[in-house]
Amino acid sequence: MKLGVNIDHIAVLREARKINDPDPVEALGIVKRAGGEQITIHLREDRRHIHDEDAERIVQMSALPVNLECSTDEEIIDIICRLKPHRATLVPERREEVTTEGGLDIMSYEDRVSAAIEKLHAHEIEVSLFIDPDLETITRADALGAEWIELHTGTYANIYAMLHSNLLHTHHSIEDLELPRHTLQTKLAESLEGLKGAADHARSLGLKVAAGHGLNYQNVKEIVEIDAIEELNIGQSIIARSLFSGLEAAVREMKALLG
Q1: Which one from 49, 69, 150, 201 is the annotated catalytic residue?
Q2: For this structure, is 213 an active site residue?
Q3: Which pTM was predicted?
Q4: 42 included as an active-site residue
Q5: Over the stretch 142-197, which tens digit does the pLDDT of each residue have?
Q6: Are 25 and 254 in contact (CB under 8 A)?
Q7: The one catalytic residue among 42, 49, 152, 201
Q8: Which member of 54, 191, 221, 249 lies 3.0 to 4.6 Å from 245 by CB, making a disulfide possible if both were Cys?
Q9: Which residues pair with 193 in a beta bridge?
């Protein structure tokens, strides 16, 4: 299973002080040396972390393929077409969100998604759609011509955290998941089965399957065991671990878990 390392949170730290340090570009060689197989970044409309100049330098300087996450906004798509990363992953985006909260609703916004895919393909950029593990949505993603889907693992990760970590006892506890442990265990099993079924369905259609969001050193084992998933994109947990162990060690530890 391949590992794409999302380096957005290096830019988050930089933007916290509005200076030029740390520079996310410095991570490129480290990730490659540690065995990462892809660099993933998200160029948000609000530019809260990665900025245009970051994206341009990363695409130009990365020896690893670059997966550039973005919305379907026409201005953003034009920037992606100019930069020509190896892949563009279309994601939903709301300015008030802390992080991406769910999969792209390609049913409601099919015209915008289709137009973005067509333009990206015209510039020889392969396309992935970041979607929830829903069979109908996956079938539609295939019909729209995407080469990849990336399954949103956030629901699984949230349930896992409420069941197996101290999240319940913190101010970040997820109110909707403050449930009895046996209920959480059932929900976790259902979520995992949903991801497995979605991945198998996507592969049966000929789609390449990635997954990501909320994955960390504790919850990734079960996702790794899903054969139809060939790539994971992981960011926050690796960058958080790197504060204590260094980025190279943090990437190596995650890569080892992927086999």
Answers
A1: 69
A2: yes
A3: 0.94
A4: yes
A5: 999 999 999 999 999 999 999 999 999 999 999 999 999 999 999 999 999 999 99
A6: no
A7: 42
A8: 249
A9: none
Contact 257, 220 (CB under 8 A): yes
Contacts by 223-227, CB closer than 8 A, 24 or more apart: 223/153, 223/156, 223/195, 224/1, 224/257, 224/258, 224/259, 226/195, 226/196, 226/199, 227/199
Taking CA 11 as the corner, what is the angle to CA 72 and CA 215, rounded to the nearest 5 degrees?
A: 70
Lowest mean pLDDT among 91-100, 123-132, 182-191: 91-100
Closest CA relative to residue 75, chosen from 49, 93, 58: 93
Per-residue confidence (pLDDT) for residue 98, from 0 to 100: 46
| Number of alpha helices (DSSP H) and beta strands (DSSP E) in the chain | 11, 8
Pick the catalytic residue from 93, 150, 213, 248. Answer: 213
Could you give the C-alpha distances from 198 to 5, 37, 175, 231, in angstroms and in order? Answer: 23, 24, 27, 15
- The H or E element spanning position 6 is strand 2-6
In the DSSP assignment, the letter for residue 24 is: G
Distance CA 90, CA 67 (A): 10
Amino acid at 91: V
Specify whether 231 is catalytic. no
